[in-house]
Amino acid sequence: MNDKKNYGFTTTILHNDRRKGIEHGSLHKPVHTSVAFGYADARQLASVFQGKEPGFRYGRQGNPTVSALEDKVNKMEDGVATLCFATGMGAIGAVVQSLLRAGDHVVSSAFLFGNTNSLWQTVTGQGIAVSFVDATDVANVAAAITPATRIVFVETIANPRTQIADLKKIGDLCREKGILYIVDNTMTTPYLFRPKAVGAGLVVNALTKSIGGHGNALGGSLTDTGVFDWTQYPNIFENYKKAAPAQWGIAQIRAKALRDFGASLGPEAAHHIAVGAETMALRMDRTCSNALALATMLEADPRVAAVHYPGLASHPQHALATDLFRSYGSLFSFELKDGIDCFDFLNRLNLAIPASNLGDTRTLVIPVAHTIFYEMGAERRASMGIAESLIRVSVGIEDEVDLLEDFKHALEEE
Predict the structure, then answer these.
(1) Which residue spans adopt a coiled-coil conformation according to this UniProt entry (predicted)?
(2) How far is Cα 382 from Cα 380, in angstroms, rounded to an integer?
(3) Fewest beta carbons less than 10 Å away: which of 65, 71, 268, 304?
(4) What stretch of H or E contains 149?
C-alpha cells in the first residue's frame, strides 16, 4: 500500500494491519496469546520498562494484537494515542482510577448510560464530587464549574432518551477554562462523528457496541486526541512528566489504569473487535437507515405516545444533530400509549430480540425502567425523562421491510 496516501474511512481501517507489516503475509494481525515477552539483551528489556524505546513488557500493559486494534481505533478518532480496555466501563473507570483524586470535581451530563451514572454515584463516596447537569444547554455546564473541576463528561447521544449535549459550545467552554473535556462517542461511533472536532481531549468508545458490532466480544477504549494541554492538568505525577507533555496523560492512564488496575483487553476479544470494525461504516449506514424508517413509522402510529430519535424533526436537538453528525445513529426509544402493556408488546415481536446489548447486527429491544435503569429508582428515572413504558430499540441490519412489518404486527395485535 501507499503509506503516504490519505485513504477513506473504511479503506484505512480495512488495510491498516497490512500497512504495519504482518507475519507470514497474513491479512489480519494474528492472535498473540503470550503474556510475557522475552528479550535477548537484558539492557533492552530495562530500556522498554523505562519507556526509552517501544516494546512489550507484560500482557496486562500491552499485547501485539491489542496494539493493532488500538492503532485502528486511533486512526478512526484521528488521535495521538489510544488505549484499549476490557470493557467500555473499564475505559471510563480508567479515567477515575488514573486522573482523579479526592477533592476533585466532575461535571457530568445528567443523561447517561445507567452504569456510567452508577459509577459516578460510587465515586462520590470516595471524596470526588460530581454535579449532574442538563448538558443540552452549555449554560448549565458553565454554572456547575468550580475551581476544583477537573473534568467535564458527556455522551454524544444519550442512552436511552437520545438527548444531545451542546457538544461544540461545551468544548469551547472547556478550552477557555483549561478543563479536560471527555466525550463518550459510543452512540455515534467515529464514523458518524469525531469528538476531536468539538475540542474533546479524551474520547471513550465502548468497542463492544457498533465498532465490534457482532455481540461477540467485550472491549472499550480511550483516545487522546492531542487537543488538551496536559501541562494544565494538576494531577499528573512527576514520574510521567519525563516524556513530551502530549504523552503525559496517556502514559499515566497506561500505568495507573492498565498496569495497576488491570482492566486489560484480551487478545482474542481484540481480534474479534478488529475484524468487526472493518465493516462498521457499512453496518452503520444500514442501521441508521433502518432506525430512521422505523422511528418514522412508530411516530405516525396512534398507539405510540412518543418517539425519541434525533433523526425526527420533532426531536429537540434535531438541528444540532444534523449539523454535527453524518447520520442520527442506530438507537432510539419510544413510549406506548397508556393501557398498552410494554411486556406484552415486546413478546409479540418475532425479529426484534429482548436483550440488553446495543450496536449489534440484530435488532434488540428492552423495557428500560424495568431492567437497565431499574436500580436507580423511579425518582432518578423521572429526572432523566425515562417513562415507565419506555422501550429502547437498538436497530440492526435486517431488511427494512421485515423490520417495519415486525413492529407493525406487534402493535396491531394490541
Answers:
(1) none
(2) 5
(3) 268
(4) strand 149-155
Quickly tell me which residue has 425523562 as its cell. 385
**Antiparallel, parallel or unpaired: β 129-133 and 105-109:** parallel
CA distance 14 to 7: 10
**Contact predicate 199/167, CB 8 Å:** no
Tally of CB atoms within 10 A around 244: 9
State the CB neighbour count (10 A cutoff) for residue 34: 11
How do 220-224 and 304-308 pair as beta strands?
unpaired
pTM: 0.94
Helix %, strand %, coil % of the chain (to 5): 45, 15, 40
pLDDT in tens, the chain (414 residues): 566 678 999 999 999 988 777 887 888 888 999 888 888 889 998 998 887 888 888 888 889 999 999 999 999 999 999 999 999 999 999 999 999 999 999 999 999 887 898 899 999 999 999 999 999 999 999 999 999 999 999 999 999 999 999 999 999 999 999 999 999 999 999 999 999 999 999 999 999 999 999 999 999 999 999 999 999 999 999 999 988 999 999 999 999 999 999 999 999 999 999 999 999 999 999 999 999 999 999 999 999 999 999 999 999 999 999 999 999 999 999 999 999 999 999 999 999 999 999 999 999 999 998 887 877 788 888 887 888 899 999 999 999 999 999 999 999 876
DSSP 50-110: TTSS----BTTT--HHHHHHHHHHHHHHT-SEEEEESSHHHHHHHHHHHH--TT-EEEEES
Residue 276 identity: G
Report residue 159 as a C-alpha cell. Answer: 442512552
Q: DSSP label at 222?
A: E
**Residue spans of alpha helices (H) in 243-279:** 248-253, 267-277
Q: Which helix (H) or strand (E) holds 190?
A: helix 189-192
Yes or no: say if 279 and 213 are a contact pair by the CB < 8 Å rule. Answer: yes
For Cα atoms 361, 367, 369, give the angle at the middle one, nearest 5 degrees.
135
